[in-house]
Specification:
- With 487 residues, the protein is α/β, with parallel strands linked by helices.
- It folds into two domains: 3-286, Purple Acid Phosphatase, chain A, domain 2, CATH 3.60.21.10; 294-486, Alpha-Beta Complex (5'-nucleotidase,  domain 2), CATH 3.90.780.10.
- It contains 16 helices and 30 strands.
- A six-stranded mixed sheet has the order 6-5-4-1-16-17, with helices on one face.
- The radius of gyration is 23 Å and the shape is globular.
- The termini are far apart.
- The model has no long low-confidence stretch (mean pLDDT 92).
């Protein structure tokens, strides 16, 4: 029996988490790409057969990323030299043409099997990669979440010719066409969320020989990998505070993993020396951003927080109220995912503001009936939407909604302390991203939203509205006030 040990390091959802921090109550530096790179370099020196992979969402989440539209991120990631990377939904945020440009800047391969150019049924990206290591052949392929289509819908031209094929079928196509007898290990890099990874594993035929799924998107922290349909499934949370590590033993005769150990390794200044060259390179971007965006735009009365997107938060309430005031609407829906920081203030610089709310978008107000409003809240508050993979919302102070998980339904919905009436008209405002995806996000069609004929674009720049609100409301605060209640 011929066996070989491999070490597979994996990250996901790094979101521009470039800089190390000292966490509250801790004394050591935690996270940041310089420390992460130091650990990767250390493992590459200590172990003979090392692979480093990333399962999507390198982009977004920092001003360094948004200032250069991801170009800075790709150039920084080149220093980490991943062996293979899969696409995440945020890789599309700057548009598909820009993604294709970033791919050319990358010194590492980016794989994806299920994005197609519909006109000629040709895959958009490199569908698979075979890495030869220590006399073994390892096949990688990548699968993206359907969220990718949500982003692409922002660009109508792109949205008309990109199609997302069924994930399991695409994995089968790759394995059926390219997995020969020499392939010793098959690894699927996904960006569909941990629960979806487990569902996908059940659909994969044993004959395809998938050994491992390394995923992302749901930011899941694991105590140990799952094993479904004899496939190992792992993920490494979010950011750069930790990295996943598999040490596996592969049998060349059976093309299978016969032993493994998995760890979630904390990244800090005790585990490995930092990569000083990379730190200097990151600082070259940071210094530009600091000089440009260090202006103080306001000081809040207290720190606002946004710890989880599935719950009502003080920062979410503040932003929803700001937009509602400008929109003069009954209901303001703010996508929780568009708020990109967990805390803000009391002092808020322009840099802090843009890191908090990096997405600019149109705000549009619609007039709908009460029964439609109830349908929306019943849909967005349902338990299965609060699983780190659904689209959740923050709402303005006029709204109070109570949802029963036990009864699986909306118990009450009030606006201005009055129960919503089925036949009464109400105004609702949302970002254009959510309007473009209203059927899948809100359970209402664009035709229904526009049916009253009273649709109005409130602003073409939500970011400008919010910045002006911050500037003109010093010493303000927001608290959690029971706007969204789950029983």
């Amino acid at each position: 029996m011929k066996t070989k040990k491999f070490t597979i390091l994996h990250s996901n959802d790094m979101h521009g988490d470039f800089l190390a921090e000292i966490k509250e109550g801790k004394k050591q530096l935690i996270g940041g790409l310089a420390l992460l790179s130091g650990y990767i370099n250390k493992v590459r020196k200590e172990e003979e057969n090392v692979l480093y992979v990333i399962s999507g969402d390198m982009l977004q989440g920092s001003l360094i990323d948004s200032e250069w539209k991801g170009l800075s991120t790709i150039e920084i990631m080149n220093w980490l030299s991943p062996d293979v990377v899969a696409l995440g939904n945020h890789e599309i945020d700057y548009g598909l043409p820009h993604l294709l440009f970033l791919e050319k800047v990358a010194n590492f391969p980016i794989v994806n099997a299920n994005l197609y150019i519909k006109k000629n049924n040709k895959r958009l990206m490199l569908p698979y990669l075979i890495i030869k290591k220590a006399g073994f052949d390892i096949l990688f392929t990548g699968i993206i979440t359907e969220k990718i289509m949500d982003s692409i819908k922002q660009d109508k031209l792109i949205g008309t010719f990109v199609d997302l094929a069924e994930a399991s079928d695409e994995v089968g196509k790759i394995c059926n066409a390219y997995k020969n007898d020499d392939i010793d290990l098959t690894i699927l890099l996904t960006h569909i969320g941990y629960e979806s990874d487990q569902q996908l594993a059940k659909l994969l035929k044993p004959e395809w020989g998938i050994d491992m799924i390394i995923g992302g998107h749901s930011h899941t922290i694991l105590a140990k990998p799952a094993k479904v349909n004899n496939i190992l499934i792992a993920q490494a949370g979010v950011g750069t505070d930790q990295i996943g590590r598999f040490d596996i033993l592969v049998d060349d005769d059976t093309n299978s993993i016969i032993d493994y150990k998995w760890q979630l390794i904390p990244i800090n200044n005790k585990i490995a020396p930092k990569d000083k060259q990379l730190e200097e390179y990151i600082n070259s971007f940071k210094n530009v951003v600091d000089r440009k965006y260090s202006t103080l735009i306001c000081k809040l009365a207290c720190q606002l927080t946004h710890p989880k997107r599935e719950i009502e938060t003080s920062l979410g309430n503040y932003i929803a109220d700001a937009f509602a005031q400008r929109a003069e609407c009954d209901v303001m829906l703010v996508g929780s995912g568009s708020i990109r920081v967990k805390e803000l203030g009391p002092a808020v610089t322009l840099k802090d503001f843009l890191a908090c709310f990096p997405y600019d978008d149109t705000l549009t107000r619609f007039t709908i009936k009460g029964y439609q409003l109830k349908r929306i809240f019943s849909f967005i508050m349902r338990k299965e939407n609060r699983n780190s993979e659904g689209e959740c919302y923050q709402v303005n102070s006029k709204v109070k909604a109570i949802y029963s998980d036990k009864k699986e339904g909306l118990i009450s919905l009030t606006v201005d302390n009055k129960p919503v009436e089925d036949d009464k008209e109400y105004t609702i405002c949302m970002q254009n991203y959510h309007y473009n995806n209203c059927q899948s996000f809100l359970n209402i069609t664009q035709e229904e939203l526009n049916q009253s004929g009273k649709t109005k674009v409130i602003t073409t720049s939500a970011q400008q509205v919010l910045e002006e609100y911050f500037r003109n409301h010093p010493n303000s605060q927001a608290k959690i006030g029971g706007r969204l209640i789950y029983q």
